Every structure is written in C-alpha cells, then in structure tokens.
C-alpha cells in the first residue's frame, strides 16, 4: 500500500526555493520539492529564474575604491609600518 | 577571496610592511566593508568614511591580532564597532531588531494574485499565470544588470547587504553569518526575501520588454 503524501502547492513551493538552494530542507521536504519540480513547468521555470538571477548578480561590478582613497590608505600603511 | 590557509602568511606580510599585500587586502574587502557599513549609516559617503576608518583600525590592531577568528571576521568586527559608535554619535537608531528578527512580518515571495485560490477545486494554490524561463540573451544585456542593481539598491538595508555579499560578491552563508552576526535561519530569511523581490523586479522588466 503506497502512502499518500500531501503534495506541495506552487504557492508553498516558491517559499521553499531558498531553503532548497541552501541545502537546508529536511530530507522528506526536499523529496516533495523535487517531486513537484518534475511535475510543474511553472515552478521549474521559477527555480531556473532564481538561478539565472543569482548568476547575473555575480557579474555586477563592485564599487571599487577610488585611486585617491587607496593612496590615502597606502600612505597610512607606510606611516604605520615606519612608526 | 583571501584563503584562510594563507592567512598567517598574509598577516606576517602585513606586519613586515608589504604594501602589495595591504593593497590586495583593501581591494578585496573594501566594497564589502562599504556595503555592510550602509546597514548602520544613512549615506554612501558616510559608509565610505566608516570603511576608511576601519582600515586605520585594522592597522592599529594588527600587531595584537592573534588569529583566534579569521582575519575577515576580525576586520568586520572592527567595522561594526566603528559604524555602531558613529550611529550612536549621530543619534541614529540601530537596526539590531531588523537583523535579529527579520521573520516577524511575513512577506510572500510572489504576489498572492499570481496563484489560484487555496480553495480552488482542482488546482489549489497553483500558478494562475506560470513563470517562463528567461531568454539568455536578455539576461546578458547590460540593462538587465542595471535592473538587478537597482532592485538590490531598493531593498531594506539588511536584505540588501545579505544579497550583495552572497550573490554579488559570492560569499558563503557561513561567511555572511559571521560578518553580520546572524543566525543561520535569519540569514536564509533575509536572502529569501531579497532574492524574491529582485526576481519579481526582473520579471516585471523582462515581460514588459517582451511585449
């Protein structure tokens, strides 16, 4: 006799995406999550969108230190070492 | 990222006055210092000041650094102390509660009206309009990066900091928890909310673009 496991709704699924990606879902819930992906195009696409967004975020340029500010810090470093 | 294994050598190089080592360290951490400082101070300029002051604090304390925590954790502790002192001096309320209790008010990842009714006879709580994968060429566009950057900038300070460190700068969750003194759960809640909002902003942009 197979046990009837309650299926996730899409609305519940989207709230578990970060826990899933962080590897923080308990085993049983992870299985329900993966089962849902295999049957739901919308949620599969949603998860893919999150992954795409994270990948693009990693290519944003960071605010670099201005050359002037860097010079001030390096002067401070020299002063510190020579002191 | 500065390797933990090489940290002893790095500290030794700094103590010996190795300018290249110091320059590399500053370039590596400065943007993150500014981001974290923004949690505590109201403007980008004030955050830059706090970050610069942090580097002076690092120099001042380096000879006493004992390696009981990682160098990064130690640097970020100096930063938070300076930023908190400044916030108190400026009479600002600190967002401790926001860091410690992000979960109090629920914020759905996706607007409720994107889903069918929870009482729907056949598909309760399923998508009313399904999301679709985004075309890779649209994601590659510089404007798309701009939309993501703007959406991150518009987030509440703690969510903005967590998503910036995790997704923009590629820190691990453990590194973020240590730098911000966050519990595992709160780090995840903040990241979840931040990613959900940025995704929604990106979806709005990409779908309006396509019509």
Main pleated sheet of chain B? none
Radius of gyration of chain A: 24 Å
| Termini Cα gap of chain A | 79 Å
Give me the number of helical elements of chain A: 4
Strand content of chain B: under 5%
Question: Would you list the SSEs of chain A in sequence order as H and E?
Answer: HHHH
Structure description:
The complex is a heterodimer of chains A (83) and B (211). Chain A has 83 residues and is mainly alpha-helical. Chain A is 70% helix and 0% strand. Chain A has helices at residues 10-21, 27-39, 41-57, 67-82. In chain A, α1 packs parallel to α3 (41-57). Chain B is mainly alpha-helical. Chain B is built from ten helices and no strands. The longest helix of chain B is centred in the C-terminal third of the chain and has 27 residues, at 184-210. The radius of gyration of chain B is 21 Å and the shape is elongated. The N and C termini of chain B lie far apart (41 Å). The model of chain B has no long low-confidence stretch (mean pLDDT 87). At the A-B interface, α1, α3 and α4 of A face α2, α3, α7, α8 and α10 of B.
């Amino acid at each position: 006799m197979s046990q009837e496991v309650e299926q996730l709704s899409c609305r519940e699924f989207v709230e578990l995406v970060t826990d899933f990606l962080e590897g923080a879902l308990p085993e049983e819930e992870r299985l329900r999550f993966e089962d849902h992906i295999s049957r739901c195009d919308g949620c599969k696409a949603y998860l893919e969108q999150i992954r795409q967004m994270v990948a693009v975020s990693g290519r944003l340029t960071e605010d670099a230190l201005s050359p002037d500010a860097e010079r001030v810090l390096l002067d401070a470093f020299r002063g510190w070492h020579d002191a | 990222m500065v390797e933990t294994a090489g940290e002893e050598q790095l500290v030794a190089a700094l103590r010996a006055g190795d300018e290249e080592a110091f320059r590399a360290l500053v370039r590596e951490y400065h943007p993150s210092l500014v981001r974290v400082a923004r949690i505590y101070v109201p403007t980008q300029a004030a955050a830059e000041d706090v970050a610069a002051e942090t580097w002076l604090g690092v120099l001042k304390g380096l000879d006493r650094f004992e390696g009981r925590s990682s160098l990064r954790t130690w640097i970020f502790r100096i930063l938070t102390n300076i930023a908190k002192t400044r916030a108190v001096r400026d009479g600002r309320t600190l967002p401790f509660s926001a860091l410690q209790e992000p979960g109090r008010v629920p914020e759905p990842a996706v607007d409720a009206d994107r889903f069918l009714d929870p009482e729907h006879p056949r598909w309760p709580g399923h998508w009313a309009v399904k999301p679709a994968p985004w075309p890779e060429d649209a994601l590659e566009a510089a404007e798309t990066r701009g939309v993501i950057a703007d959406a991150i900038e518009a987030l509440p300070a703690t969510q903005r900091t967590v998503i910036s460190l995790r997704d923009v700068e590629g820190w691990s969750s453990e590194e973020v928890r240590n730098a911000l003194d966050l519990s595992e759960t709160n780090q995840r809640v903040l990241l979840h909310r931040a990613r959900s909002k940025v995704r929604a902003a990106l979806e709005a942009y990409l779908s309006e673009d396509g019509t």
